[in-house]
Design a protein that fits this description.
Length: about 220
């Protein structure tokens, strides 16, 4: 199976963590924004990452790919069968993808991707507004919602944890780190999730790459 994407994308990172937790073998084919790679373009009609080629079956979108894979590889379950737990996991996936990553994306895209990867100025006012207006509310909600178990749903790792923790890495690249004094639950939970063997090597690689990009 081929996964197309860049390791700095929060959606690709969520998928890489999922694949690692499942023990599913894959080959990551690196692509950038607007990449003309024909395999990527065929798999991703809108040109967005991640995309997948599973022995000729082409699919784009991290959620679509994960839900397809969960049906193909049910064990260990990362999307629970219990109706309430399943609903909560999808809630957190939505929160991670469409709210948290969108907020972090305004900071990451405008401060780093635009100037460093695309060679054009980012909208720094939009980045600042996301950081000062949107982010504090999202962090306050997340801090209040992390259960004592240390997992967002039930007492075990699910897709919820991977989806909601992934955007924090992009915030870190922007210098926005979680303060353990003000957000102790997020600090402990995200440290535990992001240091799992399914994610830690990818994040280490990404941090080496970002250090070079930011120094250039
Ligand atoms: N909902 C999609 C979002 C994918 C997405 O927006 N990826 C970004 C990179 S983080 C992208 O490929 N952007 C390129 C573009 O919009 O042209 C998913 O979960 O896969």
């Amino acid at each position: 199976m081929i996964i197309y994407g860049s390791i700095v994308s929060p959606f690709v990172r969520k998928l890489l963590g999922y694949l690692g937790e499942k023990g599913i073998e894959f080959e990551l084919q690196g692509v950038g924004i607007g990449d003309p790679d024909p395999g990527f373009r065929a798999a991703s009609p809108l040109g967005k990452m991640p995309a997948m080629d599973d022995d000729g079956f082409l699919l784009a979108d991290s959620s679509a790919i994960i839900h397809y894979l969960e049906a193909r590889h049910p064990e260990p379950p990362l999307i629970p069968a219990d109706p309430q737990e399943r609903g909560r996991v999808i809630w957190w996936e939505e929160f991670g993808d469409t709210v948290f990553a969108a907020c972090g994306g305004k900071m990451f895209f405008n401060r780093i991707v635009s100037p460093k990867f695309l060679g054009r100025e980012g909208d720094l006012a939009a980045a600042a507004e996301a950081e000062t207006e949107e982010l504090p509310k999202l962090l306050a909600y997340l801090e209040s919602a992390i259960p004592a178990s240390g997992y967002l749903v039930g007492d075990r790792l699910t897709l919820a944890d991977l989806a909601a923790a992934s955007p924090l890495v992009n915030l870190r690249h922007c210098g926005s780190c979680i303060d353990a004094a003000t957000h102790p639950r997020i600090a402990a939970w995200s440290e535990a999730i992001l240091s799992r063997p399914s994610l830690a090597p990818w994040i280490a690689k990404e941090e080496r790459m970002m250090a070079k990009v930011l120094a250039a």
